[in-house]
Amino acid sequence: MTDTTTGTGEISIRAEAGIAAVAGSGRRRGGLRAPAERNPAAYWFLAPALVLIFIFFFLPVMAALGLSFTDFDIYAVGDPANTRWVGLRNYTQLLGTPLFWQALRNTFYFALVGGPLSIGVSLGAALLLNQKMVRFKGLFRTVYFAPFVTTLVAVAIVWRYMFHTRYGLLNYGLGAFGMGPVDWLGDPRWAMPAIILMTVWKSFGYNMLIFIAGLQAIPEELYEAARIDGASAWQRFRHVTLPGLAPTLVFVTVITMIGFFQLFVEPYVMTMGGPLRSTTSVVLLMYEEGFRWWRIGHAAAVAFVLFIVILIATLVQLALQKRWSDA
Amino acid sequence: MTFINRVRQVVAAIAVPLLAAACGGGGEADVATIRFWAMGREGEVVEHLVPEFERRNPGIRVQVQQIPWSAAHEKLLTAFVGGATPDVSQLGNSWVPEFQALGALEPLDARASASASTPRADYFAGIWDTNVIDGRTYGLPWYVDTRVLFYRPDLLAAAGYPQPPKNWAEWMDAMRKLKARMGPSQFPILLPTNEWPQPVILGMQTGGTLLRDGGRWGDFSNPAFRRGFDFYVQLFREGLAPRVSASEISNRYQEFERGNIAMMITGPWEIGEFTTRVTGVPWATAPLPGPDGPGVSLAGGASLVLFRNSRNKDAAWRFIQYLSEPATQVRFYELTGDLPARRSSWRSPALAGNERAAAFRDQLDRVVPLPKVPEAEAIVNKVFEQGERAVRGQATVEQALAALDADVDRLLEKRRWMLDRREGGQ
Question: How many CB atoms lie within 10 A of CB B251?
């Protein structure tokens, strides 16, 4: 049972890594010609998907953009005549709200610390599991992957006990080293590290599988050649593994960072954004504005600011990685 | 604007037939079906009350739909947008102003005064008042919820208070004496820093009204509110209350039983919880002490409302009347532990004999509602946010209250515009 599930999982993961590799290499070939240039019938095959994407993705996004320039709220739900066109006021007001900047800081803190940490842990685990001498690989893969497929709400309840100041396992362990108890979820300085810790633990298994697939795609002959040339373990990692893994790394980094910028469920179930708003993320702020207080116009503005932030972050990453891979 | 209208029409066009189909419109033409939405635990047990009503009213069937509290607000709003509201619903009384502002609710004044079975005088005045907006009544109180003091009589007696404190001076003195007998991680009172009712109640006890000018502006820097807020913050500064949020206390009953906490301010649902979970030590309830003698508390609870676009208003009103009968209310209390909103229900042996409910009966004569504006819930949530800053020493009391006024004024901007426009148009 376990064998079959990990087996199929690996196939789809490999496929994803393959897509990443194709996307990475496609650019170097100077791009493919549009399919319709060769055959107009292609549009008819694409049409159903394009129509669905247009109706269920593009239209709502445009509607949300329009809403972000209005003050659509609970009064407007009652009578649409209570809607005012406010232009950029939602955005200017947002930029003048300390809570928004705090949410943005919290989100960057989470993404810039948690994202690389998660990728590092995934890569480390993948390298370890890819070693030939490791036994029970299937077992370890399953165990490391298990948190990823466990319901987050259940995980959060268990972690809340582990983080408990007086009865928690973590402080019990720290106490064994003579370190004082940490008020994990109650101290504004520790709440975000606590959330990062839990998220990394919960999410690293997925990237680990992608990395394992990527590692297995690197031809064994390259390592043999490097070994014959007298390369050390570090040199083999730096000059064989990393370049071979580059497309996978780009894919994983971009996807992970986008995911981490959308932090929501963890603080929602663990802290509700507290203490002192230290774990309020931009998405949590958007949720509260939109679905708790029904300030839809405001919430839409938050969403578009987050969209721009993620877009910029992704472009920066791609630019950095292009330089890194060209160098 | 037209776009939004179009969306509403489309949503209604799709949702209404779907819902009608889902509800399986019965073939019997002479039977009126009332759709009733109830939340949480109430939704589970209200089914037991329906057969008696249907027996007495052969021409009416009641269809109960249970909705979890966490989804209730959103579901009611989307139902309103889609034109698919039920005939009758349970509605938290702090939501009544919001649905009134939407124009979703039917005023009940004419029906209530025409019927002898729901005399207004029999309801607790503060609770009835939560349903009255601009002089009209939009809901009938179903059950009440107010906050009182839950405490350990043994610990208080050992600190020199065989009777619970009656005013703030006694309360403060009792807490200091308790603290003197406690360890460093034990506290006389638990006031979770992410709960708004405690600071709001203390501020209202000293005469604070939260808003001014008909709900146009925040009024938190007002000396009356400030006095109560000061008292709240002082409890933390003196170490009488721990700086913890509710999510950090994994089991407050256990902490209470272990003597790590001697008092809390909480509601009637805890009577049931305490009865089953706090078994090893004595516990009791008392009305809240106020600045100079017994103090006010919050007029919370749920109301029964009739939706404006119901097609069976008369049948629905009969169901509301049935649920409001003192005998039905007592039965409901026995099923849920929810406290009835009518004085006559409290004379039944089931309630009169319950000494832990007695504190609530006493408190219900002194309850005040939150400001009756749709933004009330967002506003009170800002109170704990700024309260937390003051409690944790990130802001002085003045700074926290000024920030609170600024936050609240921003929330009320739309309301001010609406009020000005309405007055300008008249």
Answer: 12
Q: What pTM, to 2 d.p., does this model score?
A: 0.80
Q: What residues contact B244, with CB distance under 8 A and at least 6 apart?
A: A186, B190, B192, B193
Asked whether the beta carbons of residue B1 and residue A82 sit closer than 8 angstroms, the reply is no
Q: Give chain A's domain count.
A: 1
Least confident of A2-11, A253-262, B5-14, B215-224: A2-11
What's the alpha-carbon Rg for chain B, to the nearest Å?
23
Cβ contacts of A322 within 8 Å, gap of 6 or more: none
* Contacts of B188 by beta carbon, 8 Å cutoff, 6+ apart: B174, B175, B176, B178, B179, B182, B240, B241, B261, B262, B263
* B245 shares a domain with B173: yes
**A166 interface with B at CB cutoff 8 Å:** yes
Residue B63 and residue B164 in one domain: no
| pLDDT score, position A326 | 64
- How would you classify the pairing of strands B211-212 and B293-294? unpaired
Asked whether the beta carbons of residue B74 and residue A291 sit closer than 8 angstroms, the reply is yes
B171 C-beta neighbours (distance < 10 Å), count: 25
pLDDT value of residue A319: 87
Residue B103, domain CATH: 3.40.190.10
What DSSP designation does B287 have? P
Judged by DSSP in three states, B29 sits in coil
Helices and strands in chain A, H and E counts: 18, 0
A82 in B contact zone (CB under 8 Å) = yes
